[in-house]
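Subject: complex prediction, re-run

Hi both,

The earlier run crashed halfway through, so I resubmitted it with identical inputs.
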Amino acid sequence: MSKKPDKPELSRNDTEEELAHLALQEQQTHPAEALLHEFQAQQIELEMQNEELRRTQAALEETRDRYVDLYEFAPLGYLTLSRGGTITEVNLTGARLLGVERKQLLHRSFDSFVIPEQHDRWNRLLSNTLQRSGANSCMLTLAKDDGECIQVHLDSQSLMTDGRPSSVSVALTDITLLARTEDSLHEWQQFVEYASWGMAIGDVTNQTLKRVNPAFAKMHGYSVEEMIGKKSIDLFASESKAGYAQYFNTLLDAGYHAFECVRLRNDGSTFPAVMDASIIKGFDGKANYIVSVKDFTERKDAERRMRELTAHIQTIREEEKAIIAREIHDDLGGTLTALKMEAYWLAEELSASNKAEPLLRHVELISQLTENAVNVTRRVITGLRPTILDDLGLLAALEWQAEQFYKHTGISCRVNGIEDKDKLDKQCSIALFRIFQETLTNVARHSGASRVEVEFHCCDEEAMLSVSDNGCGLPDGHTVASTSYGLRGMNERVAQLGGKISFGSRPGGGYTVTATLPLYVDRRKEERA
Amino acid sequence: MIRILVTDDHAIVRQGLARILEKNQEMKIVAECCNGIDALNWLRSNDCDIALIDISMPGMNGIDLLKQLREEKPKLSVLVISIYPEDQYAVRLIKAGAAGYLTKGCAPAILVEAVSQIASGKKYISPIVAEMLANEFNSQEGKLPHENLSDREYQIFLLLASAKTVSEIAEALALSAKTISTYRSRILEKMHLRNNAELMHYAIEKQLSV
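This time it finished cleanly. Structure:
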């Protein structure tokens, strides 16, 4: 480090003034004194020179120290190796890199740090460096004494003494972190390359694609190259194009948006997809969007099959119920009726004779028991399938159900409707009837209502059933639980017939369920005509 | 002599009915049919005083048979006899022109009484059915025509009265125009009105407005 001079510095001006002053004195004094004066002048001169030298030395020391610093603390490891590859000099960074104290590094062979698989590579480099002047370099993996491995980039150069290479100077750059980053980058790249999800990066400003993975290109029927620069909107099928602006705005606002849509392929075909998009900022601060797309065809198909299966099961269930009801009615109903008539006849015959009096009581008991059995049979049949629905149509069935509801719960239930009985097929009738039953059950259970209004109409293109109560409705912020099997069942029934159903509280209290079914029968007739 | 046609798909039931009725010297079973088509065919070339019909039968059921008979043989009295309790069918079928409604397994005396009453040109209304008819009558009694409208009907009535068109109302209520037309005709029917002008007049008279 630099050192300040011990004495305060004399300025040159001060010294010259002093000299001039002494010269003046010399003329006036004795020769001995003049000599003394001469010496004194020389002394001053020498002191000045000394001062100058000390200053130069300090500056040199300072420079040397700076270079030592640069050498020791440089971000690179510097080593000097003998011709045989033994370490003769090493800087602090080099020692730290190799994980060994500097003292112990000296006279150790550099070879001992190179992993065995790369000894050849290292030896080749060393001999090349010694044979040719100029720089050489290679990548090496070094194993430290504690077993940890580091990746280094090694630059070597021979040092010449008397025109021939005497030693080798080596610079080590630790690229472990870089190698790891590259490694993980490579892994991610593989992941994106082989992912079954389509992935793409697009430019927010012009909404065109910048990069896509092979899956993305494949699912849209293009090559990866063809996709670059494509407008994002052009990959939406016509039915989803209208929603594009909204999708994009939501994405920009929230920074993230997941949605379902229909995508357009190169050949004009389409597929349902679920999209997952996010906004990311690049190094340059520019916004990009990244999307991943999953082809939902299979899932949609599975959902459709599931719905069809549910619908099928529901239909079968209703059909079976109807068959059982019919069989009970035909066989059991007829038999019981006949049995009862027989009992009546017997009772009448017996009542003619006094002797048979005790028997009469038994016959009357048979008659009563049969009546009970008939009542049970009616209840079972009606529970399975209200015959009124098939015989008199939905409106009559709704009115009857409403009366029953009033009888059992005391909640008045008024049905308003007009119906052309032949318009509704059995499937629609039973669906709406079951929805009505389910809704009334819910009203009785949860609403606390005192009145239910039912609207039903059936015109050429649709049948509409709306059930409103004056109960508590749903508390604010509550939505209908999608897990409720009753409501889900209603949804399924309506969906299978291509209709719509809505549930909702009304302003001012109360709750309304509205189901609308399209009536295809007429349309088919028209087509035929 | 009361000539009776019995229509039921169960032979054993037909026999039972016949045995009960024919104990009475006045009554005679002139034919037995097992479904609506058979009965209709028989009636087209034969005659009787009373047709006793079941509701649930294969082929043509009792309800369709009743409707057909009202058209073809309006003078023929039809007594419906069914396993189902009165609450499902009785009032509707009597409105549709049946002379009476009995549940199967009613006491034989009731059956005989009903048949003779109907044969004399009256209707047979059992006490249960009478109560139902009375209830139905009560619910409409003493109310103004517009008071019989449902909430939704009244809403549409007011909109029609304020000279809104069907499509305007459809848009306002998010329903199809067709639906509103259906409502409109139902409202006119319930209120015994013929057209929108009468409807508006009614609204002004009763000072009803949105």
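The longest strand of chain A covers residues 149-161.

- K.
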